[in-house]
Design goal:
By secondary structure, this protein is α+β, with helices and mostly antiparallel strands. The chain contains 5 helices and 9 strands. The chain has a single domain, classed as Hypothetical protein TT1679 (Rossmann fold, 3-Layer(aba) Sandwich), CATH 3.40.50.10360. The chain starts with 9 loop residues before the first helix and ends in a 24-residue tail after the last strand.
């Protein structure tokens, strides 16, 4: 059983979650959101057993709606049959110096979500890996390998899309220094001098 209102569509559920994460993570131009999705899990089936392009297209519509508002880039993770490569726009691949790999994702090798994204992009290609600023995992697809360090768990108010559990995270720079380190700029008269 999910915690979603029955009358909310997959598109609405997805858009609400992505919007919350975009706000919390400060996603905007130049930032990357990685998305892993099991359409089987959304339908209440075990991952990899009942993918559906129609479901993927609804989820994609919700993501695209919020992407248009905030201006971030997306990277859609393929399934393990394509080594969890990512569908990205060629512009992002080239600007970020990502390694391209050769395949075209289809529902049975890549997954329905990756296939839908590939079909919808202007100039799609596959990147071997990425270091994204934030991520959404719909149906426990394991996106952590594509997040920058350090990942901060984010719990959206909607915890399921369809029947699939949603996990999300954003990233922050590593904190360095130790007990005397300062992580926010202070006025000059408040600073402590080192010997």
């Amino acid at each position: 059983m999910t915690d979603n209102p029955v009358n909310h569509s997959l598109k609405e559920q997805t858009a609400a979650i992505v919007r919350e994460l975009a706000e919390a993570a400060g996603l905007g131009p130049g930032k990357v959101l990685v998305i892993g999705t099991s359409t089987s899990e959304i339908a209440g089936r075990r991952i990899g057993t009942g993918g559906a392009l129609e479901t993927a297209q609804q989820v994609l519509a919700g993501i695209t709606e919020v992407q248009a508002e905030y201006g971030f880039h997306t990277a859609f993770q393929c399934c393990e049959h394509l080594n969890r490569a990512l569908v990205v726009e060629r512009e992002l691949l080239e600007r970020n110096g990502l390694t391209e790999v050769a395949a075209v994702p289809v529902p049975r090798a890549g997954g329905s979500m990756a296939a839908a994204a590939y079909r919808s992009f202007r100039e799609p290609c596959l990147a071997e890996q990425i270091s994204a600023h934030a991520g959404i995992d719909i149906g426990e697809t394991l996106i952590g390998m594509h997040l920058r360090r350090v990942a901060v768990p984010f719990r959206p108010s909607i915890r399921h899309i369809g029947e699939a559990r949603v996990t999300a995270a954003f990233t922050r720079p590593k904190l360095i220094g130790g007990e005397r380190a300062v992580y926010r700029a202070q006025r000059e008269d408040d600073s402590v001098l080192c010997d």
